[in-house]
Structure formats: structure tokens, C-alpha cells
Write a structure and sequence with these properties.
The chain has 260 residues and is α/β, with parallel strands linked by helices. It has a single domain, classed as Rossmann fold (3-Layer(aba) Sandwich). It contains eight helices and seven strands, in the order βαβαβαβαβαβαβαα. Strands 3-2-1-4-5-6-7 form a seven-stranded parallel β-sheet, with helices on both faces. It is globular.
């Protein structure tokens, strides 16, 4: 009779991924962090405007999936501080495997009749501010040896709607910039652009729901799948890829009358 000690199966430990979330209190951004933590431990670094809310968001991340993280201050509208804020994050919490840009504001829904200052803020934050953060993040990732940048865009970037032209146009600029910079990086930095439809979050509370409305958790699931598959663009829900492939070719006189 053998007395050998049974060999215990070896368990493979997943390496810890370092993830920088720019827009550290974003519901969608935090949902992505939680989803990524399901695949292995995450060490988070949250950047945002409000330290109290950042601390609360960090404390709320579930302990089993997350190692101790840090927070830092950054305002998307303070362009001159972007490079130093991103550089400091990389020095303190990097090098990062993934950087997520989850910054954005809604507003100026009235189009031509929107308040001018509100419209300028929507354009400034969603395109100029986010574009500046994309540039700073990609440069830091490249200097650190590579990594992946996730940019939260919108289906509105594919063809801005007359009901929300300012937001759609700003997202279109961010989307195009991110895709083109990904091509210019020539593989040194990977970029994943995420195009959700209407997401039910605090930011959209009170707005009428739209067709194919989704949740932050669904966006997170699609983002994780896109990261795993090597995709450069994901749509949430995926049906919208085909919807907008058709809408892209609808003549303007017809498109402007569609209830989108």
C-alpha cells in the first residue's frame, strides 16, 4: 500500500494589475474597476476633483479584489495641471497596466438655444480636457514601457444628434482623437474606445431614457471583454454597432426627423 503524500494541485496566483482611473468617482469607471478585479487583484489609483468623494469611493472598493490604493486631485478643466497630475500618479502608483479616462459632463441639451457658458463647458471638458488627459496618459504609458488606455466615448460620437449637438460633437472629437493617436502610437500604447448608449447613472438621472439604454455594469462587462479580446472599439449594447452602421448612411433630411 502506498504511503506517498498526495500531490496537492497548484493554484496559479494572478499578478496584480495597477489601474489608474481618471474620473475616480465615475459610476461607470468604478464599475469597470470592480469587473476587472473579478479576473485578478487590482491596485487602484483614483484621480478626481473631490478628495472626500475619492476617499469614499476608494474605501467602498471590495477588499477581496483590491489591494490598497491611492487617490490624487485633478480637475479636467485645469489643463495646465494635467501633465503633472498624471506624472505624479505614475510616480506614486505606477507603472500602470491600464489607464481609464472616465471624465465627462452632460449639459447644453437645448442645442442652439443652450446657455453659451454651459455649452462651452461641455465642449471644453469633454473634448479639450479629456483630449489633454488622453495625450498625457498615452505619453506616460509609452515612457513606462506600454499599457492600455481605455477612453469612455459615446454612441453620439458616431453621428451627433440635433437634440444634443454640443455633447455629441465634443465626444466625436475625443473619439476621433483617441483612435488617431492609437494609430500614431504604432502599438506602443493600446487604446480601447468604449461607446455606450444611454447609461442609467446619477449623471443621466431625470433625463428621458433612450432606446437600448444600458447600465454601468454592462459597460464594465463589455470593457473587460474588449480588453481581453484585443478590440479597439466596443459598443454597449453591441446591437448599437449595427444600428449606427445603418444610421451613418441615412440622408440628413431623414436623419434629423428620426426620434433618436
Amino acid at each position: 500500500m502506498s504511503t506517498d503524500t498526495p500531490v496537492q494541485p497548484q493554484t496559479q496566483t494572478q499578478p496584480t494589475r495597477r489601474v489608474l482611473l481618471v474620473g475616480g468617482t465615475s459610476e461607470i469607471g468604478l464599475a469597470i474597476l470592480r469587473r476587472l478585479a473579478a479576473d485578478g487583484p487590482i491596485r487602484p489609483y483614483l484621480l478626481g476633483r473631490d478628495r472626500e468623494r475619492l476617499d469614499a469611493a476608494l474605501a467602498a472598493l471590495p477588499a477581496p479584489g483590491f489591494e490598497p490604493g491611492e487617490v490624487g486631485l485633478l480637475d479636467a478643466d485645469d489643463l495646465d495641471a494635467h501633465e503633472s497630475a498624471i506624472a505624479t500618479a505614475f510616480e506614486r502608483g505606477g507603472p500602470f497596466d491600464v489607464v481609464i479616462i472616465a471624465v465627462g459632463v452632460l449639459g447644453a441639451q437645448q442645442g442652439l438655444d443652450a446657455d453659451r457658458e454651459e455649452a462651452l463647458r461641455v465642449m471644453r471638458v469633454n473634448f479639450v480636457g479629456c483630449g489633454s488627459l488622453v495625450l498625457a496618459s498615452m505619453r506616460s504609458l509609452r515612457s513606462a514601457g506600454g499599457g492600455t488606455l481605455v477612453v469612455l466615448s459615446s454612441v453620439g460620437a458616431e453621428r451627433p444628434r440635433s437634440e444634443n449637438p454640443v455633447y455629441g460633437a465634443a465626444k466625436a472629437g475625443l473619439d476621433s482623437l483617441s483612435q488617431a493617436l492609437a494609430d500614431a502610437a504604432r502599438g506602443d500604447v493600446r487604446v480601447l474606445v468604449v461607446r455606450p448608449g444611454h447609461v442609467r447613472t446619477r449623471m443621466t438621472a431625470g433625463l428621458p431614457s433612450a432606446p437600448f439604454a444600458t447600465t454601468a455594469e454592462a459597460v464594465a462587462e463589455a470593457t473587460a471583454a474588449g480588453l481581453a479580446s484585443g478590440a479597439h472599439t466596443v459598443w454597449v449594447p453591441s446591437t448599437l454597432r449595427y444600428v449606427f452602421s445603418a444610421l451613418r448612411h441615412v440622408p440628413r433630411p431623414i436623419y434629423r426627423r428620426l426620434p433618436l
